[in-house]
Amino acid sequence: MFNPDSVADFPEKPGVCIMKDKRNRIIYVGKAVSLKNRVRSYFQSSKNLPLKVVSMVSKVEDVEYIVTDSEVEALILECNLIKFNRPKYNILLRDDKQYPYIRITLNQPFPRIEVVRKVKKDGAKYFGPYADAGAMREAIDVINKVFPIRSCKKDLSQIPLKERPCLNYHIERCLAPCQGFIEEEEYNEIIKNIIMFLEGKQETLIKELKTKMQKAADNLNFERAAVLRNQIGALKKVLEKQKIVYTDMIDQDIIAMARSFDTVCIQVFFIREGKLLAREPFILQNTDDEERREILTAFVKQFYNNAHFIPKQIIIDEEIDDKETIEEWLSRKKGSRVYVIIPKRGEKRKLAEMVAENAQIYLDQIESMEERERLKNLQALEELKQHLNLENVPNRIEAFDISNIQGAESVASMVVFEGAQPKKEDYRKFKIKTVDGPNDFESMKEVVYRRFKRALLGDGKFNELPDLLLIDGGKGQLKYAREALNELGLSRIPTIALAEEFEHIFVEGKDDPIILPENSEALYLVQRVRDEAHRFALSFHRTLRSKKNLRSVLEDIPGIGKVRRLALLKTLGGLEGIKRASLEELTAVPGMNKKAAQAVYEHFRSPYK
User: Fold this and answer.
1) Boundary (domain end) residue, out of 90, 115, 138
2) Are 331 and 358 in a shared domain?
């Protein structure tokens, strides 16, 4: 247990405190103007502390700290540590890896647009994160219709390629840079227009395109002028859908919060050049017992730590902590002055109230949907208990599926549903070890035996037993799964098999199947569980096959043995990176020489590959 007396030795300097539990896991990260005062505040009488802090302090085994030169540096470090470690007791924006980004591959010749879930420092330009993936797809769809850039992943470091242009060229969705039909300078001008579009500068973009259209017409380049005219028309249609909310042509984000008993929604309106470009709702976790200003402060820090565009003004409907420090941090990040405004009256106040109202409406919708989903799940579990004649409601359901192709790379999946919802942290993958050939029965027995044997041995990853075991298959798979349970003395665990052809349920000791009522919630639930087990097994099998195929592709290249294969994959980040690499990049890989690099380079550029 951490000794509070040791806080006396902490420095009275800005920095970040890092609290850890007895398993050395980081459970809280906090910025401090004075490390000594900040940490001391947590270890006072529990009467003065919120319940959440009392719970956290009881688990603190050690407190480390990192001193910084300024409060702004402490804020940046706090944001990065929270993002990387996702501590249990910090307020958390939902894992940003789940939010998509638009990436423009400026690090490649003739850039293209793609959707990614992870931001890298790779020279590309990123937009996002987008909580509303539908709005993001709509933006991409507009770009594809207005700006004919390539969508393929071909290596265009050396053009023209020895192949015909694809269908997109013939339907005027691509200018075929692969054939050298467009100069790189002209292509990059299109990319610049796309970036302006994604930044919300449509008015400015239209003005620029009008100037270029007039210039093309004056030069009697009517074909070019017609293309620009069509682009301008399409962009104007986009502008017509955007609501004018502010007369000043200023880039602004407006942030407001709504709160219910156990959920917080923060809504952000993105205003660019006076028009509402988009709005995004965000749900925050770990907000129990937290003050509203603490929640808003945590959101602003985490959101703008990830954001790749920062507006001139950030309008927030309530006071936040560290306002001046956040302004200084964001100004540094943007490279020009950023203002954080908490309006009390006037037009900005009305805008903040409008965003707060939208946040509350979204929260009400979410809670209504969650309540309907909860009742539906309870109904499904209760129906399943009755139809299967179980003693208890099957709150925890585990399902197993076997996947192989002609007996090769046999694998199994175990998925878990609790309260009729997937519990993905409990999912497990298995490689079949003792069975040769395509024998699903013996494979099922092996994997069920291994799973429950580990539970009996006290393995923490498998110690929770299911209320119901679901086997994907028919009577054969069920028989072998039950044999495994009986051998382990766990025959008391209810087990069913779901046969896919007619969705019949088989149980041990009964010849006739149980047929759940069509359109019943119980049937929908067992289908969802079975389908998820099938999906998870297939994805694992696909991963193993792709790794095997990758190894076999590199093994076909003369002079590339195991050591060089590993070096290539590690240095260049996978097969796509190896394919795109120049001869110089391949030669620079540790363990490679010019001859080996030439062999790899030519292998992936042969017209027969």
Assistant:
1) 90
2) yes
325 lies in the same domain as 264: yes
**Which residues are within 8 A (CB) of 301 and not within 5 positions of it... i.e. 6 or more apart?**
75, 78, 79, 82, 326
Lowest mean pLDDT among 152-166, 184-198, 456-470: 152-166
Q: What is the span of the domain harbouring residue 534?
A: 396-544
Identify the band that residue 238 occupies on the pLDDT scale cut at 50, 70 and 90. Answer: low
Question: Residue 550: in which H helix or E strand, if any?
Answer: helix 521-555
Which uninterrupted H or E stretch holds 15? Answer: strand 15-20
The C-alpha atoms of residue 394 and residue 526 are separated, in whole angstroms, by 11
Tell me the DSSP string of 194-256. Answer: HHHHHTT-HHHHHHHHHHHHHHHHHTT-HHHHHHHHHHHHHHHHHHHHSPB--SS---EEEEE
In DSSP notation, 156-207 reads: -SS-S-SS---HHHHTTS---GGGT-S-HHHHHHHHHHHHHHHTT-HHHHHH
Read off the CATH number of the domain in which 27 is found.
3.40.1440.10
For the domain that residue 411 is a member of, what is the CATH number?
Answer: 3.30.420.340
Dihedral, CA of residue 24, residue 455, residue 446 and residue 400, to nearest 10: -80
Q: Based on the fold, state whether residues 198 and 294 are members of the same structural domain.
A: no
- Are residue 406 and residue 537 in the same domain, yes or no? yes
Are residues 295 and 182 part of one domain? no
Please name the residues in contact with 600: beta carbons below 8 A apart, sequence gap of 6 or more.
Answer: 557, 560, 568, 578, 581, 586, 592
In a domain, 97, yes or no: no
Please report, rounded to a whole number, the percentage of residues in the chain having pLDDT higher than 90. Answer: 34
